[in-house]
Amino acid sequence: MADDRSAQGPGELLRDTHRRREALRVAMTDLEAAIAKPVPGRAKEWGASVIEALGGVGTALREHVAANECDDGLFDQVIETQPRLTHIVARLRQDHVDMAAAVVAMLHQLQGAATDDEATAEAVREQSVALLAQLARHRHAGADLLYAAYSVDISAAD
């Protein structure tokens, strides 16, 4: 990231974190809406809609990861001020890897499928539901981390 996070105070960092949380929540809602559409007889349209929604999740996730994992980003600051939370940060970092890989895998599946491939659509739908559950758990764990580190309820406005 081009901005200088070391110049940010905790309040500014938390506002940025809240903004990214909201972007991720919106992307999750868009993905859920896309996968909820009917597949039979319209796998091509369904796939295009889900590809777009997965792209939104991927973008929001990349921004979330870049900000949290950059030098002097949220994770570094939490570890510096609250070293007892290092194990939670490590788990959240692993979530980032797993969730990003899931998005890429589903995009490849959909992009490589035949236009009328309802079986692939159903498989991606199931994988998307699992990803949405993982993203929700990740957001909850992130809110818990921030509360443990700063006694701030970041989810209050979600």
Describe the model:
This protein has 158 residues and is mainly α. The chain has one domain: Four Helix Bundle (Hemerythrin (Met), subunit A). Helices cover 77% and strands 0% of the residues. It has 5 helices and no strands. Helix 1 packs antiparallel against helix 2, helix 1 runs antiparallel to helix 5 and helix 4 packs antiparallel against helix 5. The radius of gyration is 17 Å and the shape is elongated. The N terminus is likely disordered.
What are the key terms here?
mainly alpha; 5 helices; 77% helix; 158 residues; elongated
The second-level CATH architecture is: Up-down Bundle
CATH topology: Four Helix Bundle (Hemerythrin (Met), subunit A)
> What are the segments in which pLDDT stays under 50 over at least 5 consecutive residues?
1-7
Strand residue content: under 5%
Shape: elongated
Distance between the termini: 25 Å
| Total domains | 1
Return Rg in Å: 17 Å
- Which sequence of SSEs, written as H and E, runs from N to C? HHHHH
Roughly how much helix do the residues carry, as a percent range? over 70%
For the report, how would you describe the main beta sheet?
none
Please state the average pLDDT score: 90
What is the CATH class? Mainly Alpha
Structural category: mainly alpha
If helices are DSSP runs of H or I spanning 4 or more residues, what is the number of helices?
5
Give me the count of strands.
0
